[in-house]
UniProtKB/TrEMBL annotation:
Keywords: Signal. It comes from the Eukaryota. It comes from Neonectria punicea. Residues 1-18 form the signal peptide. This is Linalool dehydratase/isomerase domain-containing protein.
C-alpha cells in the first residue's frame, strides 16, 4: 500500500538545474564526457546528430538530437544555444501534424525517412514510426522550458509549446489493444511520460481538459502501483531508468495539487528501494529476473540505470566501462544530459545517505516482490531473488496471456536469471522462456523452474554466457566459476548449441553470444515439467 509522506515534497520547484555549479563532480563528469562524445556526431550543417549506431550510412537521428540539444542549452558555451535552437526547429519540423493519422504528434525518426503511411513506406508502429517518441521528445522539451527558458528565444518557446500540443493530443490516440498499440497504464515508462506531458501542458496553457486527462491517466498508473508497490514494468536496466526519469518529472515540475506531485515522490522512493535491493555493487549489475533486458550483463550493454549510478556512485562504481560508447546499446548514452540535468532534483527526493549503501556488497539477502502488468498478467507475478557476494539467483512466477511477456520477446523477457563472478568477468545463465506460465522457486544456491501447463513436448532452454578463459564448452561441467547440478523430472541429457556472430546454429541475442543448453522431457512424460538447478561457486 502506498503511504503518503506527512510532508509533501514536489513543490513547484523550477529552474533547479540551470546553475551547474551545484552539480556534483560525478554529474559534471557524466555530462561533459557524454557531450564530448556527442559533439563528434553532430552535423552542424544540417542541425542534427548522425545516428549514434555506427552502421547507419550517415543517416541522422531525431530523438538523440533532441537530447543533445538539451545538453547544448545546459552547457551554454560559444554557439551552443544557437545550435540547440536550430536542432529544436528541425525536430519540430519533422513532427507529424496530420490529425487524421494514428502517428499524429509523434516525431519522424530521421530526416531522410520517406513519408510514413505511403504505398512505398507503409505505417508500421514501432518500426516506421514510434509512438513513444512523443514522450521522449516531449519530456525533453519540457525540461528545456523549465530549466533554460531564459536561454531560448520567444519564438523557439512558442514553437515548443505548439509542438507539445500536438504530442499531447496525439498521445491520447493511444489505447492499449486498439490499432496495434500497447499503451496500457501498465506500460510504465511511456505511461508515466504521457500523464506528465498532458498534466504539465494543461497547467501551462490553462487547458483544463488536458490537465484532467493527464491527472486521470496518472491516477490509473498510481492505482496499479498501489497493488504491489512496484512498477508494472519491473526491474529493467533500461526502462526502470526511464520510469525514474518520468517520476522525477512528476515530482519536480507539477503544482502541489497534482496527484503526480503528491504520489510521485513515494513511487520514486519505493522504486529506488527495490533497485537498491537488487543492485549488486560487486558485479555492477541489477540481479534478475528482468522484465525487459537489452543485454545480460550491465557491464557490457549501456543501460539508463547505469547513467543514474554514474551520477550518484561515480563512473568507476557504475556499470559503464571507461569508454561507454563502445558498449552494446550505446545510443542510450545520449540520455546522459537529461540524467545530469535532473540528478539533483531526483536526489532531493531520496534520503541523504541513500546511495552510500549502494557502494559495496555487504549483506547476503533474499529480496521478494510482486508486480502486476494487466492485461498481459492473468495473476500477480511473484519475484524472489537471492543475492550473495559471488552468485545471484532470481526467478519469477507468472501466468500470462502470451509468451515472451507483454512485448512478446523471449530474449528480452527474462524470468529466471543466475549471475556469478568468474576470475575474469560476470557470467550469466538465463531461462529462455517458452511457455505462458512459469513457477519459480529460489533460495540461496538453488533455482527450481516448473512449467505448470507443460507436457511431454516441453523444453527448458538455458542461455549461458561465453567465457574469456574457456572459449569452448562441451558440457555443463566446463562452465567456469560455478558448479551446476541438474535434476527435476527432465531428461538430464541435453543438447548444446552455440549462438555466435560468425557461426554456430543459433544467433546472438541483443549482440550477446551465448551457449544454449536444451533439456527435454523423458519419453511419455506426464505431469508438470520441472528443472532443478543446484549451484556451488568454485
Ligand atoms: C556550466 O555552465 C557554464 C556557463 O553556462 C559553462 O561554461 C560550463 O561549461 C558548464 N559546465 C558543464 C559541466 O557543462
Ligand atoms: C478532452 O480530452 C479528451 C480525452 O483526452 C479528448 O478525447 C477530447 O477531444 C478533449 N476535448 C477537448 C474539447 O479538447
Ligand atoms: C492505495 O490503496 C489503499 C487501499 O488498499 C488506499 O487506502 C490508498 O488510498 C491507496 N493509495 C493511493 C495513493 O491511491
Ligand atoms: C503470487 O502469490 C500470490 C499469493 O502470495 C498468489 O495469490 C498468486 O497466485 C501468485 N501468482 C502466481 C502467478 O502464481
Ligand atoms: C534422454 O535423452 C537421451 C538423449 O536424447 C535419450 O537417449 C534417452 O533415451 C532419453 N531418456 C529418456 C528416459 O527419455
Amino acid at each position: 500500500m502506498l503511504l503518503l509522506p506527512l510532508v509533501l515534497t514536489g513543490l513547484f520547484a523550477t529552474g533547479t538545474a540551470a546553475d551547474n555549479s551545484t552539480w556534483t563532480e560525478n554529474v559534471q563528469g557524466l555530462f561533459s564526457e557524454s557531450m564530448t562524445w556527442m559533439d563528434r556526431y553532430y552535423d552542424s550543417s544540417l542541425g542534427y546528430l548522425y545516428d549514434l549506431d555506427r552502421e547507419d550510412a550517415l543517416r541522422h537521428n531525431t530523438r538523440s538530437s533532441a537530447w543533445y540539444a538539451l545538453g547544448l542549452l545546459a552547457r551554454n558555451e560559444d554557439n551552443d544555444v544557437d545550435e540547440a535552437e536550430k536542432i529544436i526547429a528541425n525536430v519540430i519540423g519533422g513532427q507529424f501534424t496530420d490529425e487524421s493519422k494514428q502517428w499524429y504528434g509523434t516525431y519522424q525518426k530521421y530526416p531522410e525517412e520517406p513519408e510514413v503511411g505511403t504505398a512505398v513506406y507503409p505505417a508500421r508502429i514501432y518500426s516506421s514510426w514510434d509512438p513513444n517518441w512523443r514522450g521522449f521528445v516531449g519530456t525533453t522539451f519540457i525540461v528545456m522550458l523549465e530549466e533554460y527558458s531564459d536561454r531560448l528565444s520567444d519564438e523557439t518557446q512558442e514553437l515548443i509549446l505548439d509542438s507539445l500540443y500536438h504530442a499531447t493530443v496525439g498521445d491520447t490516440y493511444r489505447v492499449g489493444g486498439v490499432n496495434g498499440d500497447n499503451l496500457y497504464p501498465a506500460y510504465s515508462n511511456p505511461a508515466i511520460m504521457r500523464a506528465f506531458v498532458s498534466g504539465w501542458l494543461g497547467h501551462r496553457t490553462n487547458d483544463d481538459n488536458m490537465t484532467t486527462s493527464g491527472e486521470a491517466y496518472a491516477q490509473e498508473i498510481i492505482e496499479l502501483f498501489n497493488i504491489t508497490d512496484t512498477l508494472s514494468e519491473f526491474n529493467s536496466g533500461t526502462y526502470t531508468g526511464v520510469s525514474l526519469f518520468g517520476l522525477t518529472l512528476w515530482s519536480t515540475y507539477l503544482p502541489e495539487d497534482s496527484v503526480m506531485s503528491k504520489v510521485g515522490p513515494v513511487m520514486l522512493r519505493e522504486t529506488w528501494e527495490a533497485v537498491a535491493q537488487l543492485w549488486h555493487p560487486g558485479m555492477k549489475n541489477m540481479a534478475g529476473p528482468w522484465d525487459r533486458a537489452y543485454g545480460y550483463d550491465m557491464n557490457r550493454y549501456l543501460s539508463v540505470m547505469a547513467l543514474w549510478f554514474w551520477a550518484y556512485l561515480g563512473k568507476d562504481a557504475s556499470s559503464v566501462i571507461d569508454q561507454p560508447e563502445i558498449m552494446t546499446h550505446s545510443a542510450d548514452y545520449a540520455w546522459a544530459p537529461l540524467v545530469a540535468v535532473l540528478a539533483n532534483a531526483q536526489a532531493e527526493l531520496l534520503p541523504d545517505d541513500f546511495f552510500d549503501g549502494l557502494k559495496t556488497f555487504d549483506e547476503d539477502r533474499i529480496f521478494e516482490a510482486q508486480a502486476y502488468y494487466p492485461p498481459y498478467d492473468l495473476d500477480i507475478r511473484n519475484i524472489t531473488t537471492s543475492l550473495s557476494e559471488k552468485v545471484t539467483v532470481g526467478g519469477m512466477t507468472y501466468r500470462q496471456t502470451q509468451g515472451g511477456g507483454p512485448t512478446g520477446s523471449s530474449t528480452s523477457f527474462t524470468p529466471a536469471v543466475i549471475q556469478w563472478t568468474t576470475d575474469d568477468e560476470v557470467a550469466f545463465l538465463t531461462l529462455r522462456p517458452t511457455e505462458r506460465a512459469l513457477r519459480s522457486e529460489v533460495s540461496p544456491g538453488r533455482l527450481s523452474l516448473t512449467y505448470p501447463d507443460g507436457d511431454a513436448s516441453t523444453v527448458f532452454t538455458l542461455a549461458v554466457s561465453t567465457f574469456l578463459g574457456k572459449p569452448t564448452l562441451s558440457s555443463l561441467g566446463d562452465i567456469p566459476g560455478l558448479e551446476i547440478s541438474v535434476s527435476g523430472n527432465v531428461n538430464t541429457s541435453y543438447s548444446l548449441a552455440f549462438a555466435g556472430e560468425n557461426g554456430g546454429s543459433a544467433s546472438p541475442a541483443h549482440t550477446f553470444e551465448y551457449w544454449s543448453f536444451t533439456f527435454s522431457m523423458p519419453d511419455e512424460f506426464e505431469g508438470a515439467p520441472n528443472l532443478l538447478l543446484e549451484l556451488q561457486p568454485r
